[in-house]
Amino acid sequence: MKIKNVQDLELYQAAFRLQQAIFAASKQWPKEETYSLIDQVRRSSRSIGANLSEAWAKRAYPAHFLSKLTDADAELAETRHWIATAVACSYLSDQAEANLCALADTVGRKVGAMILKSDQFCLAVGLAKR
Prior knowledge:
The chain is an all-alpha fold. The chain has 4 helices and no strands.
């Protein structure tokens, strides 16, 4: 399959699924968490896909591309922290935790693979030498 835009990437699609699953799960959390835990986990999970989008737009610049991929990975790490916090506060069932962690694992494997093979995704244009 030819990749026409970032939304065609399996990694982006997995990140988007994680973001939406976190949004759905966090709707059930206590209202007093609205401006702390809920806001934080939603922001970090949404930032994964946002950073992937920025990375994709910067493929002509390998260092920038890799930097944005590592930012996406860092946002995933933050998201995992907030999921663990929700578990510690008893806001997630065992099944919900397992589902979110499985989605996060998928995103982590895919972003790690893209980081390791980042040069294969970069555009071969003469812009970097100017």
